[in-house]
């Protein structure tokens, strides 16, 4: 299953924190009500600060792939986060 998730701020700009978009997308897709429900901490699979820094404003044509809690996650520089069931 593929799920595309785009998160934008209220002012219409994309999120400056892809790490938070990833966490939010997985929580929503998995039906988690609280971040404590994750089996694996995001920091155990990828450094959230490094992920956020990679996708700073102006980054183009970049993407990162990793797995978290049964989902293959693709983060793209256009602000899209894709989830695929593993």
Count up the helices.
3
Q: Span between N and C termini?
A: 9 Å
Beta-strand residue fraction: 25-35%
Mean pLDDT: 82
What is the H/E order?
Answer: EHHHEEE
Outline: globular
* Percent helix range: 25-40%
- Count of distinct strands: 4
Low-confidence stretches: 8-12
Q: How large is the radius of gyration?
A: 12 Å
The helix/strand class is alpha+beta
Major sheet: size, sense and barrel closure? 4 strands, antiparallel
The largest beta-sheet arranges its strands as 1-4-3-2
How does this model look, in words?
By secondary structure, the chain is α+β, with helices and mostly antiparallel strands. 28% of the residues lie in helices and 27% in strands. Strands 1-4-3-2 form a four-stranded antiparallel beta sheet, with helices on one face. A hairpin with a 2-residue loop joins strand 2 (63-68) and strand 3. Residues 8-12 have low confidence and may be disordered.
